[in-house]
Write a structure and sequence with these properties.
two-stranded antiparallel ribbon; about 45% helix; TIM Barrel; alpha/beta; about 325 residues; single chain
């Protein structure tokens, strides 16, 4: 079993072109040393669960996961079926990430009510609790006779780690107090999202978080996790990767392109962006572990190849 101090690296899927191209990307990530491939839960991109089954079938050891499912999109009973099926078909390689949702336009387009944040946070916690109940149950009573007569097994997750010990590892990610409270109480992997809502802007208008914000969010979650804090793994979602020997110039150019969301110094310090040489970024990964406890990183798929030498260097340093 993975120790919480072991580094793990992952990337998330942005799009699909063809079965062959997707399979080759997954295999290339595995050769690079990535540990996990994640699928998001947004409109306009691939449906997460079939994508994860395909990723597992294309690779030998790569774990697969959701980062993260929008809990209000899902009926818990139907989601339990998806999770159990995917964990079975991937041979117990699934990690389940859950969040409260933050893109209002997606809810509008899908015809799903956009509720206040507090209600969405409550729905997330209720979904986690209900999934645990469903995974722990011995199937549905209405099917008991049929299962017994025909010898049909109950479809349940292979793994017995998360959800109270009845399902796959659970990731809960976000930045708000209520989401991190839920993460602290339930998750095997606590994710600190690298993107923060811009106050006064429409929901889903985001900016990269600063190092100070990351420290404060980790502190908040650790306090609420109590004795669990050192037993969970701490995850960070990286928003950009730039390999360069000119760190400051690259940071300034990025801010010119995307807007002055922070100073160049703040952009270079944040744990949610990596700008520099492979050696400099590897050193930053190690420093981030000491400062925040982050040992699990996800980069966006466009940065997957660029970040690969960093993985190799980090593992060479730590032996």
């Amino acid at each position: 079993m993975t120790r919480m101090t072991d580094f793990r690296f992952s990337y998330n899927i942005f799009g699909l072109e063809s079965p062959a191209a997707f399979a080759e990307t997954c295999r290339r990530a595995e050769r690079h040393g990535y540990d996990t491939v994640f699928a998001a839960d947004h409109l306009g991109i691939a449906s997460p669960f079939p994508t994860l089954v395909a990723a597992a079938q294309a690779t030998e050891r790569l774990k697969v996961g959701t980062l993260v499912l929008n809990a209000p999109f899902w009926n818990p009973a139907l989601l339990a079926r998806e999770i159990a099926t995917t964990d079975i078909l991937t041979g117990g390689r699934l990690e389940v990430g859950l969040g409260a949702g933050h893109m209002k336009w997606e809810f509008d387009e899908a015809g799903i009510e956009w509720e206040p944040f507090g209600r969405r946070a409550e729905r997330l916690r209720a979904t986690i609790d209900e999934l645990g109940r469903l995974f722990a149950a011995d199937g549905y009573d209405q099917q008991a006779a049929m299962r017994e007569n025909l010898g049909i097994p109950v479809s349940r997750p292979v793994q017995r780690i998360g959800f109270g010990g009845y399902g796959p590892p659970l990731i809960v990610g976000g930045t708000g107090d209520r989401i991190l409270q839920t993460a602290a109480e339930t998750a095997d992997i606590i994710g600190i999202a690298g993107a923060f809502q811009i106050k006064g802007q429409p929901p889903g208008t985001l900016r990269i978080g600063t190092a100070a914000e990351a420290s404060e969010r980790v502190r908040y979650a650790r306090e609420r996790a109590g004795e669990r804090a050192d037993r969970v793994q701490w995850h960070a979602l990286t928003q950009l990767v730039v390999i360069t020997d000119e760190r400051t110039a690259a940071a300034e150019k990025l801010l010119e392109r995307y807007g002055s969301m922070m100073t160049a110094e703040e952009l270079l310090e944040t744990p949610f962006a990596f700008i520099g040489s492979v050696e400099q970024i590897a050193d930053q990964v190690l420093r981030n572990r000491e400062r925040y406890g982050f040992t699990y990183y996800t980069v966006h798929e466009p940065y997957m190849d660029a970040f690969a030498p960093v993985i190799k260097r980090v593992r060479a340093i730590i032996g």
